[in-house]
Each structure stands twice: as C-alpha cells, then as structure tokens.
Amino acid sequence: MLRDRLNGAMKDAMRAKDMTRVTTIRMILAAFKDRDIAARTEGPDGGVGEAELVNVLQKLVKQRRDSIEAYEKGGRPELAEKERAEIAVIEDYLPQQMSEDEMKSAIAAAVADTGAAGMKDMGKVMAMLRERHGGTMDFGKASPLVKAALS
C-alpha cells in the first residue's frame, strides 16, 4: 500500500539524514491527510483509495512544475532546483506512466468503446480514459492526442 511504502521510506530517509526526501515525504503524507479529511466531509463512507492517492501525487507534481516555471521566469534557479528535487522524490511513488504509443492505443480503444464521432464526444472519451487509466496516463499529453483522434 502506498501509505505504508511512504512511512517506511520516511524512516529510511531519516536514518540516512536525507532531508530533501524527509521533507518531501512529510509533505506528501500531509496532502494525503488533507484528502482524508476532505473525504470525511463528503460522505459517510469517506474512504480514500489508492487511485485517489495517486491523483494527489499527480497534483503535487503538477504544482511543482508550475512553480518551476514561475521561479525560472523570476530568476530564482535555486528554488526551481529545489522543486525539481521534490518532483524526483514524488515520482518514485507514482505508477509507471504510459508511453505515447500505449496512450494512442488506449485512446483508440476508448474512442471505439464510446462510439465517439467528433469533438463533441471528447468529454466522454476523456471520462472513460480517466476511469480506465487514471494513475498511469498523463492527461496533459493525452488531451491533444484525443483531439487528433477525434478530428
């Protein structure tokens, strides 16, 4: 389970005195706890599954990529480098991402399964892709591929 891996990795990082890894893992666990609290207010079952935790990790990576861009524009390369180091730690806990060829075949299957005929059906295709490949597909890269497949 992802939480168990992170807790074990934090202990190992603390023993190794790897402060970048320790602080990043603490930040990940705090984000998971925030998601748990939000899930409790959403309903009585309120459980957060592995897929939801992977989504949290993906959001953390996206936030850091946005920060890198801002820091580089602002002339702060040392802060951009810190964000890159955090991304490297976070990506250790993400499932292997699909290659472009794998994404294209998954998109073709989703288009066929939904019977999508044009751009108006893009939402249906993207919803099916999120359902089937939520943790392994980079939807920033998949969106233009879906548009190409539907046009």
Fold and architecture overview:
The N and C termini lie far apart (40 Å). The chain folds into two domains: 2-91, Hypothetical Protein Yqey, Chain: A, domain1, CATH 1.10.1510; 100-150, Arc Repressor Mutant, subunit A (Orthogonal Bundle), CATH 1.10.10.410. The protein is built from seven helices and no strands. The radius of gyration is 18 Å and the shape is globular. It is mostly helical. The model has no long low-confidence stretch (mean pLDDT 89). Helix content is 77%, strand content 0%.
Helices and strands, with pairings:
Elements: H1 2-16, H2 19-42, H3 50-73, H4 77-91, H5 100-114, H6 122-133, H7 139-150
Give a quick precis of the structure:
With 151 residues, the protein is mainly alpha-helical. 77% of the residues lie in helices and 0% in strands. It has helices at residues 2-16, 19-42, 50-73, 77-91, 100-114, 122-133, 139-150.
